[in-house]
Queue: 2 jobs
Job 1
Amino acid sequence: MSVLTRDSVGRAGDRSAPGEATPHRRCGWWTTRRRDQLAGLLFVAPQLVGSVLFVLIPLGLVFWYSLHEWNVLAGTFEFVGAGNYQAMADDPNLPSVLRVTALFSAGLVMFNLSLALLLAVLLNQRLRGTVVFRTLFFSPVVVSLVAWTIVWGFLLQDNGGVNGALGVAGVDGPNWLRGDWTALLSVIVVQVVKNVGLNMVLFLAALQGVPAELYEAARVEGANAWTRFRRITVPLISPTILLTSIITVVGSLQVFAQIAVLTQGGPGTSTTVLVYYLYQRAFQFHQFGYGATLSVLLFLIVLVLTVVQWRMRRRWVFHEQ
Amino acid sequence: MRNRLTAVVALTALLGLTACGGDAAESDGPVTLRMTTWSANEAHLKLFDEIAAEYTATNPDVAGVTFDPIPFESYTTTLTTQIAGGNPPDLAWVLENSAPDFVTSGALVPLDDTLKGTEGYGFDELAPAATKLWQADGKLYAYPFSTSPFGVFVNTDLVKSSGARSPAELIAAGQWTWQNALATAKAVRAETGKAGLVVRDFDYKGWDFLSTVWTGWGAQAWSEDGRTCGFNSPEMVEAMTVLHRGIFVDKALPGPGTTADFFAGDAGMTITQISRASLLDGQKFGWDLVPLPAGPKGEYAVIGQGGMGVLKQGRNAEAAADFLAYLTNPANSAKLAQFFPPPRTSLLTAETLAKTNPLLSPEQLQEVVIDGIADGVVKPSHTGQAELNQAVRAALDPLWRPEADVRGVLDGVCTAINPLLAK
């Protein structure tokens, strides 16, 4: 977008002052156009340098490492070609890891988006106290992730706060972090409560952009609340739904600290998602080459999911700017 | 044009990075050594700094030694990441469970020549039981600076208020067995509401700490040669059945997902290394330290170790080995003995250890420390330990449920780790 703007400004400048600009451009190398280009590059340089150093070069290195057997302790680094990719295809743990990752991401995305939308719709009403609740739901977003997770780790213990509260209500709560499905559910809930506020704010902003007269017209036509939500609200905020779903899907595939702090992938392997598995392989088992191969797999999964979502937008996103 | 400039910026950045990665060893001046540790204890670091200062005063080639504490939980991971990142320390503490990986991979420099060549070092007095884990092909790859036996710390106030027989009474009567220890733990739990017996650092994840229990039954995680799984042996099944009953029927040990810190007064007894005795300094409750209870196979001891090695990939390996020889010479070993039970037989006497371990009585030092080091079984370790650790932890998880089929779960552990043991 910024490139187009710069080009169009440049062309507009050329046309608006032909008498002055043309002689300069013809006799010297240092033209207005070149000067603009350099200014533009200087503006984007800090971001560009950061991206190259911390994104593009590491990304290239990950592909390079994935073609090698890297024994950190022995200090050996041998080219094995597609050996790690073959090992990945034969890895007996990988199907279970991918299944847990899919379950985790699906649960997180559905739970996060529906709760965020519900909260946004509720907080979009003109009622007293909504500002307090907005702040309340958004505040976990700014809390340190590890601190948040450690506190939840205590709350979810067998004799922790969650079961204490359930006990008051006469319910005998499960040992949340030790049961196969309760552990996965716990990690999902901890992550959703942490981040739902961000999506909620995005939805809230989108809801406030829906023109009130559309609702009035629908009301005159006799549409009930559900129909108004389905036929007016959802289509008009669909660009935001697309944005939040892409962010949340990508985010769900990168969840690491919560797993590392709460369950370390257990019990069994019930919470070993792909990111945690590649961390184990690379940093705990010292298999950096294979860990890099799993990173490539993660990269491809994120890429495919994002492209699919982006392609599908034409079908269900109502309008695009 | 834009593309070309982008390429130039990227290339410049890359060159800048490469320029930053110069090798410090190329400079001719005195070097600074770095040692990673898992102890951030001020008293430990003060002693290390003092020894390092004495060393640098007489060795102009070494400008200083920095001690770099890394949290215990992530120690080996952080250390290997530093090595992978091209920033290896010159010296490193190595945990016993990663000893086989470090010793056999060629990551460490053999120390025999340097240590034997240091005047007055007394290489021959290092106890073979202590050095065994750190040797490969007859060469010593790390100095076992800490050989710390596991013992049972007792909160005598809690045990007394439970009305149960205390470990000291049981020892006097010759009845300090696992059966009676668990009965005392059960009484503490039932009468005081506090935890009975805590296997410290186990927390239903660090399964290797359970070797302090199953060794009493003569069970092993795997055979001596590391090739055969021992989890489904009759001895292990019996030990784990007793443990399972203790956790889920008698509540003698806190269940999964429950934390209880002995040193905060939350438990009647805890099994841990005697080096944790320093945590009892200034405690308000009465305490005792006793050896591990006898199992069906009689009395036994389990030891945990820490080694100090010189990294081959470090930039100053020769200087680092020389400093290690100084740090662990007889005089400095005696100083280190106040925190870490030493491998030198001349220092392993109750009198010597009593001078530097004021919290422990001579009887405790003799029974738990000296006898423990002489007869102790080292906690399980194997090449590829991290992967084995993870596989055993995952396969053992189903055991930590009230309705678990102990035999079935332990068979499952062997199924999971047999391919790894065969590697």
Note: The CA atoms of residues 162 and 168 of chain A lie 10 Å apart.
Job 2
Amino acid sequence: MNVLNFVSDFFSDSAHWQGYDGIPTRLSEHLGYTLEALAFAAAIGLPVGLITGHYGRGGNALSLIATAARALPTFGLLVLMTMLIGFGMLPVMIPLVTLAVPPILITTYEAMRSVDPSPVDAARGMGMAETRILLQVELPAALPLILGGLRSAAIQIVSTATIAAYVSLGGLGRYIIDGLYQRDYEKVVGGASLTAGMALATLAVFWAITKVAVSPGVRRSA
Amino acid sequence: MSGFFDIPSDLQHSWWGLIGLHLREALLPVLAGLLLALPLGQLCVRLRWLYAPVLWVTTVLYAIPSLAFFVVLIDYTGQTELTVMIPLTVYSLVVLVPAIVDAVRSVPQETLAAATAMGFGPVRRYLQVQLPIAVPAIIAGLRVATVSSISLVSVGTLIGNQGALGNLLHDATIYNRPELAWNAVITMAVLAMLADAALVLVRVLLTPWMPSGGSGGAGGGRRTTPKTAGARPPVPAAEPALKDAAR
């Protein structure tokens, strides 16, 4: 198998393990972009999704916004922003955040809508304030689905953050873009398998978060 | 914004030509993905144990960046449209298989029993009962697949101008003409939204019994949490973990 040979060659070459173009550097850069984009996207998507979901209004507006955001081509946005703003982190973050907001927003909204209404009514009957209902009743019950939305956003960011290399930033995309221009397929395959591995690691991290964060009662009924 | 529609001659296509090319490169893979996903989904419904491994494989494939996928395929299929269309087919497949499996599985047992009692064979039951009921969820999956496919074609510009409208992005940088990049981004966004709207229309036409008030959920959300969950054995733990990831 051609591809498997590339993979083993890439990882057994010690030159790929050190220096500014080494795997540890590129991995940490990639992780940095991912976390930053995910944090921005969650800061936008979570509050809006939680509040609209709590009041049950604006679902159509949200779905319109999400469709529009999804329709924006990520790569095109990257090139356009780089031409308008110049090189830097911002033109990379804008497309990545645009990519990640719709799944977070929509899943959070849908998760809040799918919470069983009877405990919410009970909480309201007990005199809980709306903020407390939102944070202590609805949020824990909706958490598994919300985490699912964050997870799919995170995986898309991990795989798409490779485009940062196209505008001369680092990250795992460096191997793919450099490999493309140097006709060095070993590098391309190495970068791709690292990215795929990181996506799988993301899955594992979210699985662990779900185990820890989701209350046992919710987990049992889900 | 002068020269917004002045397409550089090196692309060898007019603006409309690029749009046609773009739609072909984006929509054929979705169609191929659907044609592959329907039997694969049915197989996963029949053979329950198959679903988890299929999801794992598709998730790994989905996590491979499109550019890397293209570059690796150059070795086999050259710098052609096919090299762009194969990964897009795979991505569509990844989105569509879970959508189809969840939808077909969420058809209530009573409905199936009624169909059997009316004398429907397995094939007819699948075509006339399960599939129509699954249409809203399948369309929801198709919407996500189509929109992302239209966006991803543009990455093909990096492997020797195979990106249709995405080639405008490359030309925008080498000729320093930002209006071409605007043109590409806006045209692709409009195409994606039109395709999305067309799919919503198809759903409304195919499911006349459903209220037209968009019960397909907001956006691509297909979380029609099946209340009949008690009727079937608990799903393996890997499944919910992957369901969303595979989107």
Note: The CA atoms of residues 175 and 209 of chain B lie 53 Å apart.
